[in-house]
Amino acid sequence: MKIKESRIAAVKIIEPRVFEDDRGYFLESFRSEVLAEAGIPPAFVQDNISRSYKNTIRGLHYQLEKPQAKLVQCIKGEILDVAVDVRKSSKSFGNYVAIKLSEENHKQVFIPEGFAHGFSVLSDEAIVHYKCTSYYHKESERGIRWDDPIIRINWDVSRPVLSEKDQKQPLFTSLKENDVFL
Asked: Tell me, what's the pLDDT at 39?
């Protein structure tokens, strides 16, 4: 496993070693000791899987009172995975990292606490698996609008398909101090 920094050092890109032959491939997708050496907490408590169709955008979501770090991978199709820094004291506050994850490249991304997360679906269908360090907690969930004019994410989709909740998320500039990590 290779672990690389992204343009925001706290967000890590994980590239597993893939062994391919005529039967298909094998890879090790999780090894706690390797992740721990890179500063990635191995204490994941919940796994989630989502299935989405082309042009879907999910996000941008985060939990404030019960924050979640996430280890994300796309096991079918291709997505553009996005992490936005919502740590007020960070030099990269309001900046984002976007990484293409696919069943072909086998990359994963580690998103620490203090980041809003979302993804867009670039293939006809995508199945995304992600591990979380804290349980889902509806009361502490927050979000940022996908098309925020300050953050300016290029989601690489032609006609975005969004949930009603994601269409109504607040703009980044309207977030109050109790909506971000200090």
From this structure: 86
CATH 2.60.120.10 is the classification of domain 44-103+110-179: yes
Separation between Cα atoms, residue 60 and residue 33, nearest integer Å: 30
Closest residue by Cα to residue 127 from 62, 79, 70: 79
Catalytic residue, chosen from 25, 53, 61, 106, is 61
Question: What pLDDT digit, counting tens, does each position of 118-134 carry?
Answer: 999 999 999 999 999 99
Q: Is 129 a catalytic residue?
A: no
- Overall pTM surpassing 0.90 (yes/no): yes
What is the SS3 string spanning the chain? CEEEECCCCCCEEEECCEEEECCEEEECCCCHHHHHHCCCCCCCCEEEEEEEECCEEEEEEEECCCCCCEEEEEEECEEEEEEEECECCCCCCCCEEEEEEECCCCCEEEECCCEEEEEEECCCEEEEEEEECCCCCHHHEEECCCCCCCCCCCCCCCCCECCHHHHCCCCHHHCCHHHCEC
CA dist., res. 48 & res. 87, Å (int): 24
Every domain of the chain and the residues it spans = 44-103+110-179
**Catalytic residue (choose from 96, 106, 117, 130):** 130
Distance between CA atoms of residues 112 and 114, nearest Å: 6
